[in-house]
Sequence to fold (217 residues):
Amino acid sequence: MRKIRVLLVEDNRLLREGITAMIDRQTDMKVVAASGGNENIALKARSVRPQVILIDLSLRNQYGLRMVASLAKKIPEFKVIGMGLIPAQSDIVEFVEAGASGFILKDATIADFLRTVRSVARGSKVLPPPLTGSLFSHVIEHALKRGKGALSNAVRMTKREREIIALIAGGLSNKEIAQRLGIATYTVKSHVHNIMEKLALHSRLQIAKHSQAGATL
Fold:
């Protein structure tokens, strides 16, 4: 049986050794190299020719994100999986746009971890179980299928929604927004609900922060 070749990039030595041991116990996969992230990963990947590259999302100074983008551009034939604790929605957006094929939460079961590696090796795109079934997951899945850059097109805001986001960021209440735009308060509430669903946010404060970050609009 031809084994799935895995390159592991994890800066925590204990985790790196533990994940390596877990993978190497499988009959259908093996870690061909493990790195703390302090070397040229593209060069290492070309040398060991992995099918799957596992990268810790929390590598310092957003190095993990830059690494995913670099690998996707230079050697797209290698599939990249991000690993981490439950990341912010914006983090997943960034890694999808950068070219990641899947995500594994660090509190995932061993079965889910191994299933994700096998699925990505076969060419599937995989999201963490807590995200599946949500509107956000459908947006991300669309981006995964369409490739880099598709996410910005997947989340489309209407002109009215963009206006309301800007006013929320300006500190206006629903009633004040309604008065400013000449619409009913319940209409504003409906727009706010749609905005939160589209962006997978949960509060007006998150909408304001999202707007200030200049994301996805």
Observations:
- Confidence is low (pLDDT under 50) at residues 148-154.
- The chain has eleven helices and five strands.
- The CA atoms of residues 73 and 183 lie 47 Å apart.
- The two ends are 48 Å apart (CA to CA).
